[in-house]
């Protein structure tokens, strides 16, 4: 199975570790890292570690594309990003390891124009001639139509492709109407979608009843784990306890794990176990990487998978 990840709004993540951070005060930083990122790039980076052939596309600022190009070359990722004038946005991530908290400041991204969006749409359709599964992930840049994911999913589904969607707000709401193969909202995104305040697995179980007709649905809930729904079955995957370095990209690792599970043709229980191990492995380090195979296996064996009674979505 050949996979494409599409990142319309990539980011260079600047992660600064600052323990006991106090907003409005002068703080000391202990460490920093700059990583080429954005949701689809993170998914691709993890899938490449897993050993899958992966292609990336999207819109990348031509003024600071080198760190992305180095990552793609290092991991053997086929680079089909369209270069556009300007610099890819920065994503500031402040990690407070002492309190096990991460604070994100995401900038908006490069303003894009209709011809750039049209080039991207054509690029995705060209890649559909040689690829089977598409991951559409992250926010849309300013200027992109909010139904862009809807249009891409509709066209890809018409060509018989599998599509995994991970976004939020209106693009998620509209994208769902085109029936992607899988979606992975977190609790906050599901709350927005269903206009309900959700904070527990029980709340989420109730809320997903309004989402019909998806092959796979995954609701991630941070340290509470994730709910996986597939063909009338539902499970709650509870992650193992790990020392967290940064939770940035935990959801992207879960999406990558889900794609790996689709690639392997796993049932819902094993898919949930694999995807949860991917997330647990990725949050123990900064940046989107998988741990060594033996560590991943160990993590898998410590994921608790509980079958739920009401599984229909
Ligand atoms: N503190 C944690 N401890 C253990 N596992 C965690 C923790 N935070 C996240 N995870 C794992 O990662 C998965 C995805 O996390 P989360 O729900 O935070 O995704 P997300 O909000 O989409 O993340 P992001 O947008 O940063 O990629 C969770 O379902 C869980 O398995
Ligand atoms: O603004 P978006 O696209 O929703 O999120 C962007 C982002 O926070 O998502 C990734 C973590 O999931 C980071 O690498 C990146 O900075």
From TrEMBL:
Top-level EC class: transferase
Keyword vocabulary terms for this entry: ATP-binding, Kinase, Nucleotide-binding, Transferase
Residues annotated as domain Carbohydrate kinase PfkB: 16-291
GO biological process, one term: small molecule metabolic process
Reaction(s) catalysed (UniProt annotation): beta-D-fructose 1-phosphate + ATP = beta-D-fructose 1,6-bisphosphate + ADP + H(+)
Regions annotated as coiled coil: none
GO MF: 1-phosphofructokinase activity; ATP binding
PROSITE patterns xrefs: PFKB_KINASES_1, PFKB_KINASES_2
The EC number(s) this enzyme carries: 2.7.1.56
GO CC terms, sorted: cytosol
SUPFAM superfamilies on file: Ribokinase-like (SSF53613)
Cited PANTHER family: 1-PHOSPHOFRUCTOKINASE, 1-PHOSPHOFRUCTOKINASE-RELATED
Family: Belongs to the carbohydrate kinase PfkB family.
Function, in words: Catalyzes the ATP-dependent phosphorylation of fructose-l-phosphate to fructose-l,6-bisphosphate.
Name assigned to this protein: 1-phosphofructokinase
Organism listed in the record: Deinococcus cellulosilyticus (strain DSM 18568 / NBRC 106333 / KACC 11606 / 5516J-15)
Highest classification ranks of the organism: Bacteria, Thermotogati, Deinococcota, Deinococci, Deinococcales
């Amino acid at each position: 199975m050949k996979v494409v990840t599409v990142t319309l709004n990539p980011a260079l993540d600047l992660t600064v570790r600052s323990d006991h951070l106090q907003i409005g005060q002068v703080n000391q930083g202990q460490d920093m890292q700059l990583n080429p990122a954005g949701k689809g790039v993170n998914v691709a980076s993890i899938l490449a570690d897993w050993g899958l052939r992966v292609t990336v596309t999207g819109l990348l600022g031509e003024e600071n594309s080198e760190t992305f190009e180095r990552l793609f070359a290092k991991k053997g990722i086929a680079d089909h990003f369209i270069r556009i004038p300007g610099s890819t946005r920065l994503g500031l991530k402040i990690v407070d390891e002492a309190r096990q908290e991460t604070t994100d400041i995401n900038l908006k991204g490069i303003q894009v124009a209709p011809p750039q969006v049209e080039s991207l749409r054509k690029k995705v359709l060209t890649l559909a001639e040689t690829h089977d599964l598409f991951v559409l992930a992250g926010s849309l840049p300013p200027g992109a139509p909010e139904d862009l994911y809807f249009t891409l999913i509709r066209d890809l589904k018409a060509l018989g492709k599998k599509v995994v969607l991970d976004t939020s707000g209106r693009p998620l709401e509209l994208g769902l109407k085109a029936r992607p193969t899988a979606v992975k909202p977190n609790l906050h995104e599901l709350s927005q979608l269903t206009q309900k305040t959700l904070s527990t697995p029980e709340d989420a179980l109730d809320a997903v009843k309004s989402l019909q007709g998806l092959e796979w649905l995954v609701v991630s809930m941070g340290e509470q784990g994730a709910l996986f729904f597939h063909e009338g079955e539902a499970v709650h995957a509870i992650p193992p306890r790990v020392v967290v370095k940064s939770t940035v990209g935990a959801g992207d690792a879960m999406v990558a794990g889900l794609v790996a599970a689709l690639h392997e043709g796993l049932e819902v229980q094993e898919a949930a176990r694999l995807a949860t191990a991917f997330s647990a492995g990725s949050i123990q380090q900064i940046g989107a990487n998988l741990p060594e195979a033996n560590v991943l296996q160990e993590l898998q064996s410590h994921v608790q998978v509980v079958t739920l009674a009401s599984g229909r979505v």
